[in-house]
Amino acid sequence: MKNVSDEQNRHVKFATTFQRAAQYNEGGRVTFIETPYIPPARHSLWDEVKRVFAILESAKRHDALLLNSSSGRIHPDVLAIILLGFKRSRPLIALHGDMWQPNRGFRALMDRLLIYLADRAVDRYIVLSSEEIEKFPLLWRVDKSKIRCCQYFFSLTEEELAAPAPPDGNHVFAGGNSLRDYEPLIEAARRMPKQRFVIASRLLEGRTDLPANIRAGQVSHAEFVNLMKSAAAVVVPLKKGLSRSSGQQTYLNAMALRKPVIVSEVFGVNDHIQNGESGLVVDGSSESFVKALTWALDSANTEAVARMVDRAQRAAQTQFTKERHVRKLIALMDELAAEQTHE
Q1: Based on the domain organization, do 30 and 135 belong to the same domain?
Q2: Tens digits of residue pLDDT in 280-332
Q3: Considering the domain boundaries, does residue 258 fall inside one?
Q4: Is the same domain home to 115 and 246?
Q5: Distance between CA atoms of 214 and 265, rounded to whole angstroms?
Q6: Which residues contact 35 (CB under 8 A, 6 or more apart)?
Q7: Is 212 helix (H, G, I), strand (E, B) or coil?
Q8: What would the pLDDT profile of 173-232 be if each residue is shown by its tens digit?
Q9: Quick one: 327 and 284 in the same domain?
Q10: Which region holds residue 258: left if phi is over 0, alpha if psi is between -120 and 50, else beta?
Q11: Measured between alpha carbons, how far is 190 from 188 in angstroms, rounded to an integer?
């Protein structure tokens, strides 16, 4: 049974492990759970165990919890939910963030067992793309009525947006580590030997077979932003066959910077990009990257590209802001509370 107070029969005070959700906090309804670390800071296994206990302690004092589906290496938020599932009285629980790409073999069996145990206590799953509304319940065998969507946001600060771009531009930029497939882009670079490419990712570190027009390796966040700001175009090459969305932060940040964005078509992309209007959505083959880059970098298409990046920036600044994202999360928590008070 849930511990739910009927606060104006709709609004609910809740605690969250997402620090950003404590922003835009009207009426003091949102509390940030003081956990031992805030990603992406380095943390230890003991830090993750302490995070579990911090969530369990917070559950004693709040009507509802908004927790992180992908926190840490051992998913401490999910482990805390499993433990709360054994309690007769507990708060409402919503799980939000990057949902899980299925593993194989023994890890797949363990994943399904953990989700089964957690699902008993989860009242709402908040996914990041509309396609996951259909896919997620089938994949993990949970009730579709628990699923809601809250699209992602661009994460650049006002200072990062306002800072001038470094002078050494005209490269094609790609970056990120999660669920990326850089091989088709590397092949595209081979077919465009006069064009410089910069790939900011640890996935290519140590490679000795890259063409001469590619510079690759992990960089700091500040350099990542500068490389994106000075780029002629930004490519986000995502793995095919995914069961979850990925890459939103990278391509939405590029859109906010008025960059021509070229993205592999996977879950979530069409929620954020109108193909040919605010970016180019391609099939992820080397041929598709060459074709899209050739068009975006051709001086004959300067006006068309300018219109596209204007629309992209406008979409980022109006539809995909952090404030809009957080307010949608708060509204979804209110919806959950309202449903509970009417049961």
Answers
A1: yes
A2: 999 999 999 999 999 999 999 999 999 999 999 999 999 999 999 999 999 99
A3: yes
A4: no
A5: 23
A6: 17, 50, 51, 54, 55
A7: coil
A8: 999 998 999 999 999 999 999 999 999 999 999 899 999 999 999 999 999 999 999 999
A9: no
A10: left
A11: 5
265 and 292 Cβ atoms separated by less than 8 Å:
no
Q: Is residue 30 part of a domain?
A: yes
* Vertex 67: Cα angle to 64 and 72 (nearest 5): 155
Residue 231: which domain range?
158-318
Q: Which residue in the block uniquely carries the two structure tokens 């579990």?
A: 52
Q: What is the Cα–Cα distance from 75 to 333, expressed in whole angstroms?
A: 22
User: Would you say 274 and 170 are in contact if contact means Cβ atoms under 8 Å apart?
Assistant: no
CATH number, residue 172: 3.40.50.2000
Whether 333 and 300 map to the same domain: the answer is no
Give me 58's structure tokens: 């917070």
Is 5 domain-assigned? no
Query: Model's pTM, two decimal places?
Result: 0.90
Same domain? 336 vs 197: no
Examine the domain organization and report whether 133 and 276 are in the same domain. no
H/E run at residue 160: helix 158-162
